[in-house]
Amino acid sequence: QFNGHGVYAQGGAVLFTAEQASADSAGVVGVWDVEAGYRRIGEFATGGIGPHDLRLMPDARTLVVANGGIATDPTDRTKLNIPQMRPNLSYLDLTGALLDQVELAPDLHRNSIRHLALRDDGLVGFAMQWEGDEGAATPLLGLHRRGASPLLAEAPLGDELLMRGYAGSIAFAGDGAELAISSPRGGRLHRFSDGGDFLGAVPRADVCGLASLDAGYLASDGLGGLIAVTPEGARALARHPVAWDNHIVALAGGTRPF
Asked: Rounded to 5, what percent of the chain is helix, strand, coil?
């Protein structure tokens, strides 16, 4: 059961996809041969339940997987294990061997790790979605380097509450100096330094898609808008008669739609 995102490796010859077993939501990475017409050639465990995003680390030999920790009903996606959920970040080699794994503190076990962003030096940013009581104002951004404990980045209380416990996308700025998370539920984007310090917020209705752009970000909303976000502020780029999806993928050499 496909469960979110995929990533290419080995020069684009192989595609890895985040999946889960229908019976128990155990995480699976599907392995696909691109040149053979996307023929499935294998699979291996992710080291957790309910994986959603996965990325190829800069060494090109390691996958990092966001295991969200949520078991779901295979027919209607009802969440089945919220009181017991245990999200984690798992690092796997391309054969499926578990190299490293980190979990959040016990009081944050309902903070589902959903989306990932990578910097060229191996710093991993992860965006979370809170499955606990409303108004808890838990941090929704984490940072991790292999071999270290995760660092959780907190916004001021008022700003954290306005995110409504939901981060839908994450990206590093084009220069790598900072990163951001977005909340379509809260209608805002939060910027943080690469050390986890809060840098500011950008209000925008239904904002979610994020990608690196120059020294900042390209952000999209569900109303067809595209905006550029930099340390100096936000600037409208274009509006199209579409409802953008929650994610943006930057393509090398692609044409900008603005």
From this structure: 5, 50, 45
